[in-house]
Prior knowledge:
The complex is a heterodimer. Chain A is α+β, with helices and mostly antiparallel strands. Helices cover 36% and strands 27% of the residues of chain A. Chain B is built from five helices and no strands. Chain B is an all-alpha fold. Chain B has helices at residues 3-17, 40-54, 60-66, 74-85, 94-98. Classes of the chains: A alpha+beta, B mainly alpha. Chain A binds chain B through residues 221, 223-224, 226-227, 242-244, 246-248, 250-252, 282, 285-286, 289, and chain B through 33, 39-41, 43-44, 47-48, 58-61, 63-64, 66-67.
Amino acid sequence: MTGGQGGVRPTITGLSSAFPPFRISQEDLYDGLLKGWYEDVPNARDIALQTRVRSRHMVWDPRVVFASRSLATGERMEKFKTAALEVGRASVGGALEGVERDRVGSFVMASCTGYTGPTPELLLARDFGLRADLRRTFIGHMGCYAAFNALKVAMDGLAARPDEAVLVNCTELSSLHFRPERTREQAVIHSLFGDASSTAVLSNEPPGRGVALLRARTEQLYETHELMTWDVFSDGFFMTLSPFVPLIIGEKIGGLLERLLGPAGLAVGDVAHWVVHPGGPKILETIAARLGLSEDDLAPSYRVLEERGNCSSATVLLVLEEVLRSRRPAAGEYGVMLAFGPGLTMESMLVQF
Amino acid sequence: MNAEKVFARVVAAIVEANRDVEPGAVRADASLTAELGMDSMRIAALASELKRQFGEVDMTDWYVSAAQRGGDTVGSLVDFLQGALAPGAAALGVEALWGRGQP
């Protein structure tokens, strides 16, 4: 439990996030765009404001871009090509400060909001002078939990090559995918998602040098695969999200945590810090109710949701940053990271500060 | 527990979770979301009350079927609970007992 080979564990030693410079309040976006789109959706304004999102960063102003027409997928991907590099550069640059570049042996990037080739991490690696024999992995389209997939690739890399450092980046530009369908479901979705890039640096370290990743557990609920989808259409990406998703997560979260924590000899009450992906307020409320957590336990998740929105895979790393900043965990305290997405898939990680 | 008792308890729990709803509106074929106006938090409160009364039942299978269009009727919930309460026993089928639209 306390150590891998030689007493070291895969550890997040650096974390840095960046956002596109354009920021818009929920009210301004609603009044400037969504109000017109959802005038026939009952309580559309309440839907937008009940998400608890107060502001979001976006790579463009949807009030302007989508004022008169929707866009083809190619037009959206053209924007991804440049914008992902801009925000990714700011995030990766922050995380690499003080890191010996030649020690970075692997770079894992996740995104579900855009595609281009060469994939963005190649150009970012070039810009930051990373090694020509860098192992690169791009994880596409998995959704809000993909930071876990990226972290698990990093953990595997550190097990195989214990002396290297690994870079993990999640860059999500959800604002590329505003769509004009006038439904309650789309009103909810367009009121939640924002843009962000977050980067972590990992290496094998002894206890007390960062956020050690102790155990990871994934559970797929195969029978629920139709309840959350993210498809690529010719006129952009299209998400569906059933209102029953938070309820199903609520049914399954207790068992997942037993199976994550039990083998480590821990229980929910031993967890001092909760790093929960704020998919939406109802996910957080349901998890709190099922696990007996207070709103204060989930304050870092709520704060990220309020200030940044749901930034898909980058979000759980934003919440981890917020926990480190606002909670200042003591060395040795345990935390649990959680995220959910299409599948339904539940990802979990036991960490030690 | 027979279907009538389960139905009566479900109706009472729906009204408790959703004070805007009149008991008479809670028909077997009424959709919890479309007709009774319940959002996911109200359904969560309903599930919590039903679990308090009937014991810890994993509601996932009902949630999955309820997510399909027209699948979240009061009758489907009663049928599910009956099945869950009496494993191996055939559910009586509340919609058959009461008929569509008649509580």
